[in-house]
Predict the 3D structure of the following.
Amino acid sequence: MIASVASATLHGVEGRPVQVEVHISTGLPALTVVGLPDTAVREARDRVRAAVLSAGLAWPQNRVTVNLAPSGVRKNGAGLDLPIAIGILVANNALSPRHVERFAFFGELGLDGSLRAVPGVIPMADAVAPGQVPVVPHASVNEARLAAPTVRGARTLGELCAALTGRGRWPDPPPPFQLPPVPPADLTDVRGQWVGRRALEVAAAGGHHLLFVGPPGSGKTMLASRLVGLLPPLGDEEIVQVLRVHSAAGAPVEAVLAGRPPLRAPHHGATDVALVGGGSSWMRPGEVSLAHGGVLFLDELGEFSTTVLDALRQPLEEGVVRVTRARAVAELPARFLLVAAMNPCPCGEGTVPGACRCTDSARARYERRLSGPLLDRFDLSVVLARPDAGDVLRGAPGETTAAVAERVAAARAVAAGRGVRCNAALEPEVLRTRAPLSPSGTALLEHHLATGALSARGVHRVWRVARTVADLSGHDGALCEEHVAEALHLRSARRGLTHSDGVL
Amino acid sequence: MTPSSSAGPPPSPVLSDDERAAAALAALGVSPARLRRLLDGWEPVDAWAALQTGDHPEDGNGALRAAARPELLQTVARRCAARGLFVLLRNGPGYPAALAQDPEAPAVLFGSGRPAALAGGPAVAVVGTRSAGVAGRQVAGVIGEELAAHGVHVVSGLALGIDLAAHLGTLRATGASPVAVLGSPHDAFMTSAQRRVCDAVALRGLVLSEQAPGTMGARWRFASRNRIMAALANLVVVVEAHESGGAWYTVRAARRRGVPVAAVPGSLANPAAAGTNALLAAGASCVRDGADVLALLGLSRTVPPARRPRTAAVHTGADAQAVLGAFGGEPLTADDLARRTGLGFAQVALALEQLAAAGRVRVTGGWWERTPPRLRSAGSQPSATPFS
């Protein structure tokens, strides 16, 4: 007997249709899976047999061959357990082919016959042929419904078989997602820290990558975690993209549904694969993709390994990661706002002149690790000092996230009028025509260019930030001296930081 | 010694047998005291031979005999040649006279530059912290420049911060040759700024190290090096120092030798001036610039220093005046300045830009410092400001 059941497998953030073919023939009882299965799929043999028997169904006493077509594509994950089981049941005449022809199955089986949720339900449900209804574990029904209008779910294999044959009803779908409450982290908790607050606001309004430099306890993490609240909510198209990534990585999707930009804060021990994705045959999305549309926060930037930091350069430049392996290539979305925090030197006190007690070689090592192209990508880099005791104890509460987010939204709307997503994406030619400088602003930039404090590329970065500063204040004319001055200050953490400066 | 005679790198010296043997002994990496004992009463060649045969009384357990492989002679000689280093033996020719009688004098010195650079004129060690502020580095530079211009050898350690600033000052002047004493071998790691200054000092004067090239550096060697600076100097000037740190080794070594110590005062709010202020409280002489140091040495200024042009008066606004007035002696962030002046961030930013362009303030990694008024003219001149 032969049977064929529709399913899908995951590749990066895309689903790929898979046809599960089962053939039962005479021979010694055995189960073989062919068609480039990975370890999890090969292990399905034992899970499927136990689940079928636990569900009280008959297991064929013959030779069973399972083929996963197309056989050139790697199949991965436990999501193929369910279609293999259904295929065997059809081939063994426990189900009729017409019971299953309208459905596509995804799900992992437990030994007791229960159906367990698998990652990537959204892209996989997306990949099924039109007219086919995804059948998923009950726990994944809500997620799958984001990709397909009709979804069926079941808790156990027995329940599923009963529903397919019409002997039982499909179970009621689970209650819809409870949207999580608004995150409690609000800017109003931050007392003082004017520079840090202003940098957050400008970063959110202009999409400028932001670097905080400061000693431990200066509030770098506190500030960075409040940036997502300032960003405008995700658009419909972005929500779909972000949902696919989160689903493919098995991350919760509830917050994305509310349109809230994601915040990812990987630990500095992260490997390059964990950050950019790949690593398994199905090209799991990395942290940069999970941060797509939101904020990637790298705390202790100096502790990340250099290969990991270098891997960030492509996504920062292009907004996508192309993960290339011998067997497969995947393109994963990765447009995020990078916020990083670092100590100025190993002892943490290095920015205050005269306070650092690090050895020369330790400092040089630390600076070498971060020098170059990555630091160049930060439009904003500000120094944070430990907050003033008076501010912390008696200071008035700062502006709320909502108030700042309103200004950010207005500034973003102005930037959209220049035909770009945000000011950080303004090309130099567009800057000249759409964001002109006043004579005093030009003079200030020229002065910094002449003294060597700014490179030609740095000038454009300051220019873009100055445009954002002006947008935030509702100024729509040429950029004045004060806008340029503020933009210069918002990148002052690296000014005059080289050892030779000040003495040479 | 006129500067013109020092032009061009010195020819690579050929080492004598004694110098090779002494260099090889130094390459064993033993402590300075043990190296002195190894060579005490021996010709270096004999000491090396005795070590090879196990007859040297200083090598009781034979550990050094195992380390003293015969090929070490060639290895060290080759490394010296690669860097153009000469070897100075205690009591040998060229060894600094001020050091020869010192009880802790290094038995062997590796040098590059001119061995006679220390001859003629007093020597002053200018030392201080690596993590110095703008003011400290400026003072060190001014002192270095003025001393060199008046025929005083400036001795320093080429560490980042004060040491480097002092030598950079001497390189701006034409006068007495500078002397650097390294705490590491000549071929050890240096930042590019240190390497540049080191090469410049070797070209104009002398760079010394008691460690053979190719040996491992060690932290204690830096502290141990400071005794050499103190012994070479007629006066030790501490420009900026923390309450503890390397400069204190130099101060203690100077006190043991009866070398007077002077210190530059600093703001009480500046942690990098805590050590120098403590020295002043303990009775060290107070110096503010090169003239004070020259007076302490008993040298009057023979040549008045060239008058540098004063910074042009800047027409800064009320905001800039308020920001300038908010500075104490310590470095501040823009946050601090906004709090002290009550101005908004944008106004503070603009005011600081104006002041920076006028050379009145300086920024190091986001921390702003007011430029000391007396020294505003030292160092690089700001170009024409866009605000005049």
Remarks:
- The CA atoms of residues 243 and 275 of chain B lie 4 Å apart.
- The mean pLDDT of chain B is 83.
